[in-house]
Amino acid sequence: MSKFSDYNFNGRKALVRVDFNVPLNDKFEITDDTRMRAAVPTIKKILKDGGAVILMSHLGRPKDGPTDKYSLRHLVYHLISLLDGATVKFAEDCTGPVAEKAAADLQMGEVLLLENLRFHKAEEKGDASFAEQLAKLGNVYVNDAFGTAHRAHASTAVIAQFFAQPDRMFGLLMEAEVSNAEKVLNNATAPFTAILGGAKVSDKILIIETLMDRANNIIIGGGMAYTFLKAQGKEIGNSLCENDKLDLANELLEKARTKGVQLVLPVDSVAADKFAADAATQVVSNDNIPAGWMGLDIGPASVALFSETIQASKTILWNGPMGVFEMEAFQKGTKGVADAIVLATAQGAFSLVGGGDSVAAVNQFGLADRVSYVSTGGGAMLEFFEGKVLPGIAAI
Ligand SMILES: Nc1ncnc2c1ncn2[C@@H]1O[C@H](COP(=O)(O)OP(=O)(O)O)[C@@H](O)[C@H]1O
Ligand SMILES: O=C(OP(=O)(O)O)[C@H](O)COP(=O)(O)O
């Protein structure tokens, strides 16, 4: 496999898959640019060599084609500033005549950002002819999207077959992420605690079973917890829940018991009467969320319970906020868990925090430099720790 730093991009148009799936607020402002900053060294090296860069990414999970909310156009000005004023052009589509003309007109030293790949259903389907159309835009392929390496999509995995060696490779971010994750995986000291939360329940619940082979403790908070609580017969009101995963949740609770893995669930929640920053709130025990209310954060007793396990751990892996930390009323749980991880780290534990929103939370609290490693990948990092070869890595 060719090594990115040894490759000379002079005169070449590099098609670079990045993960620019950054959080945006309702004014389309970027609230955390970690993933963009993390891709800058790769982009700069190609430009410095005398090459041109064509960036491909997804943003969010658009369901019905092009929508302004999910347009990568919102990222252009910030990208220009991160690249010290380099020329950044934008193509309104990632394939077809618009993209082809923009790529053909692109000059060496310039950057072209393509519109959201997921505006085409073919991307997530891993459609080979869509991948081939993307591949035609450049003459070398660089995968720097660690955060999306667990997806077998057209731009992350299928596209690689259209580039022969040495014209396909990982970028600097992907190299660094994989090497760090390998180091942690091979040197993890017990007790090993995985902390899961967030809102991508149907995806990430599937990871728990394999994680049980590695982790001594699995803490489950955030939106992920309520499927487990409901499976235990608790009243969760309108909290986030995957009703078709209730049996799986019960099986996982049973497997944890059999394997001697401590699966820790929240004991209380900050319940809200609506999903809004100005909602009425109350702290309730988790068997008692009133009908019509929803758990939007873990409560103080849960923070204390989780902190105890975290502080007794030597290796800590965290993906998924404990609540809707974007709203002030629901950020105490995430902050409390972050504080416990920082304390454990100061006492010698190795802590790895990953995922677009989890990293945004840690940055928001000013704690990013007090954990051992911040990863751009959430689901990707978890699947790596399951021992899987991620499709984006295998394809290269
Ligand atoms: N109890 C909850 N109910 C609804 N959403 C939640 C809850 N707890 C956390 N979230 C949301 O989960 C989102 C992050 O989930 P996810 O994408 O899985 O994390 P990451 O991006 O770190 O991998 C955040 O936007 C947060 O508001
Ligand atoms: O944000 C991401 O993953 P994460 O929420 O697990 O950190 C990646 O950009 C992948 O996005 P996806 O989960 O919509 O495929």
Describe the SSE topology.
Layout: E1 13-17, H1 34-49, E2 52-56, H2 76-82, E3 88-91, H3 96-105, E4 111-114, H4 121-125, H5 128-135, E5 140-143, E6 168-170, H6 172-187, E7 192-196, H7 201-204, H8 208-211, E8 217-220, H9 225-231, H10 246-259, E9 262-264, E10 268-272, E11 281-285, E12 294-298, H11 300-311, E13 315-319, H12 332-346, E14 350-354, H13 356-364, E15 373-375, H14 379-385, H15 391-394
Parallel strand pairs: 1-2, 1-5, 2-4, 3-4, 5-6, 7-8, 7-13, 8-9, 13-14, 14-15
Antiparallel strand pairs: 10-11, 10-12
Protein name: Phosphoglycerate kinase
Main location: cytoplasm
Catalytic activity: (2R)-3-phosphoglycerate + ATP = (2R)-3-phospho-glyceroyl phosphate + ADP
Task: Give an account of the 3D structure.
With about 400 residues, this protein is an alpha/beta fold. It folds into two domains: about 5-175, Phosphoglycerate kinase, N-terminal domain (Rossmann fold, 3-Layer(aba) Sandwich), CATH 3.40.50; about 180-385, Rossmann fold, CATH 3.40.50.1260. It contains 15 helices and 15 strands. The strands form three sheets. A six-stranded parallel sheet has the order 3-4-2-1-5-6, with helices on both faces. A hairpin with an 8-residue loop joins β10 (about 270) and β11. α9 crosses α10 and α11 (about 300-310) runs parallel beside α12. The model has no long low-confidence stretch (mean pLDDT about 95). The structure holds adenosine-5'-diphosphate and 1,3-bisphosphoglyceric acid. 1,3-bisphosphoglyceric acid binds near residues 151, 200 and 378. Adenosine-5'-diphosphate binds near residues 197 and 326. Monomer. Belongs to the phosphoglycerate kinase family.
